């Protein structure tokens, strides 16, 4: 086992974190604490709920990741630090890292709020659709609800060779032609609520 790859890591852990996981962290150079400290770098829980950790809100406020014990075990098994992404993460302060967003069909005040959230969570935002755009956030509460209200809408989102959704903006239409993933507000909120990036096929 490669020792020391948790050097500099100070984990505040929930009470149900097993002793063997605590020992693995210490053996690999990390520090374990049951209380929040100024030096704390990560939170650690067993399950998927942030509520298992009493200081979860404080960790989120400081933008510190909350991980599952499965991440520690996986790192030890691989003898190296693994990405803090996917199912190992309960709260990711850089949820949208590496993703380039634009928006359409959003009122100006909401557009500014979403843009600020995207940047806060590690993504980048441009008001224009560019060749580098990864995701288009559409100002629709839910594509599923829109499908109920207007059956042609979601059909147009999913089957790009057919007519565009009713009320589709030029930017949205161009994104669909380029096969750029288009997501709704529900997708965005689900990412934030769960602390995990949802599949980009969730909506488009």
From TrEMBL:
A biological process from GO: mitotic DNA replication checkpoint signaling
Keywords linked to the UniProt accession: Repeat
Name of one Pfam family that matches: BRCT_2
Domain of life: Eukaryota
The keyword Oxidoreductase is assigned to this record: no
Start and end residues of each BRCT domain: 1-89, 91-199
Gene3D superfamilies tied to this protein: BRCT domain (3.40.50.10190)
Protein name: BRCT domain-containing protein
